[in-house]
Backbone:
């Protein structure tokens, strides 16, 4: 993805720029472990339809878990930024 004439971050991790470094590291580690687990799942000798079912269930489950956490984190940062700006305007 090109931004301003240079290559931007991977679209999967583009939202990570909104996180502080510790949270960013935790999220990247978690996503990496999930991808590795899926690689091992797909390299196993299970039937393909079962692998696909497990992958869909796993992806839906992690989406249900991670999406609200990330959205609430962004919302909280916006509220804190607004409160900080309001406080700076009062004094």
Residues:
């Amino acid at each position: 993805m090109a931004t301003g004439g240079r290559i931007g971050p991977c679209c999967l991790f583009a939202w990570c720029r909104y996180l502080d470094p510790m949270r960013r590291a935790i999220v990247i580690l978690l996503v990496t472990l999930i991808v590795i687990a899926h690689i091992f799942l797909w390299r196993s000798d299970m039937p393909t339809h079962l692998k696909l079912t497990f992958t869909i269930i796993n992806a839906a489950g992690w989406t249900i878990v991670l999406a609200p956490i990330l959205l609430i984190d962004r919302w909280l940062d916006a509220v804190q930024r607004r409160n900080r700006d309001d406080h700076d305007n009062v004094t």
